[in-house]
Amino acid sequence: SFYFPQVLVDLFRHDLRLWKAYSITLQSHDVFSEYLDLLSALEEELSSVSDRTLQSNGPVS
């Protein structure tokens, strides 16, 4: 299990374009390979946050 600052989750869930750019950057450079587990954990957390938001607010139209 990873600990990552809640600010990352809050930042990325409000701007998925930023999340996509961050994710692509980390995946595209070998120097960041040690962060791929963190990336997966963040992706899972963002997915669960999105699911909870949809459940409480309903789908965005």
> Strand pairing plus helix content: what structural class?
mainly alpha
What is the total domain count?
1
Helicity, as a percent range: over 70%
What global shape is seen? globular
Instruction: State the order of secondary-structure elements, H for helix, E for strand.
Output: HHH
Largest sheet, if any? none
Radius of gyration: 13 Å
Give an overview of the whole structure.
With 61 residues, the chain is mainly alpha-helical. The protein has one domain (1-43). The protein is 72% helix and 0% strand. It has three helices and no strands. It has helices at 6-14, 16-28, 36-57. Helix 1 (6-14) packs across helix 3. The protein is globular, with a radius of gyration of 13 Å.
Describe the structure using short key phrases:
single chain, mainly alpha, globular, 61 residues
Brief rundown of the structure:
The chain has helices at 6-14, 16-28, 36-57.
Describe how the helices and strands are arranged.
Elements: H1 6-14, H2 16-28, H3 36-57
Helix pairs in contact: 1-2, 1-3
